[in-house]
Amino acid sequence: MKLDFIIDKEYDIKMTLQRKETGYPEYREITHASLEERYRKELPDMKIKQKEYQVSWDEIGELFSDYVEITTGYGWFYPRYECVLSVAIRGASNWGRAPKIVRSYDKDPYEMRRITAHELILSHYFEIYRRHYSEEKLKDGQIWALAEIAAFALTSLTSEVKNFWQNTEYYTNHNYPHIVKLQNDLKPIFLESIKRKDFDYYIKQGIELVKDYPNMRPSSPNRIKT
Predict the structure, then answer these.
(1) What sign has the CA pseudo-torsion 209, 212, 213, 214?
(2) What is the pLDDT of residue 96?
(3) pTM
């Protein structure tokens, strides 16, 4: 799997305004005109960061790609993914319906790796569920919770991730406190799945546990249309 960092003003503005429309409070004051103005001022810096992000990611890209395939037992569903640099969105995936994620452009090129990987794993998990487990009929919020938790696990709880970024904490002090209990319950199950080399065990156990959370939903709307 190859990840390319791109600048796509139209896509970025569309996604940002969609988030505003669906209730993200941090986007309340954003307008189309304000985003256009940011692009006018910040595009030169974005182009610099685009190159820096690409160089940094390419140092780990092939190893990370192999790591996810081996650990999950599922190959990437697309040979090429795009990461749209954003002036407003910190991080977003699109529920696996297209090989595209979004990341804020103004981060350190090396520190951005983990969140970028997190968004890619979200997309990968959504695809796995949609193609192989959709008969479980989970609600969107339940799928989202499992994908987020899997992304936290895959970016922190294995020895391989030490090759990709320095911070390997299994975050529980994030923006979704309502998933923390489920996240903690799934931690030993994830570690067991690593021993077994059976990621499907982790998925299946997660599906059963999340059924006890029928009203699970993101703190803010998380789904992005493409």
Answers:
(1) positive
(2) 65
(3) 0.93
The pLDDT tens digits of the residues spanning 184-208 come to: 999 999 999 999 999 999 999 999 9
Distances (CA, A) of 217 to 41, 154, 222, 223: 36, 21, 9, 10
Burial class (CB in 10 A: 0-12, 13-18, 19+), 57: buried
Structure tokens at 8: 């796509």
Q: For 58-80, how does the pLDDT look when each residue is reduced to its tens digit (9 = 90+)? A: 999 999 999 999 999 999 999 99
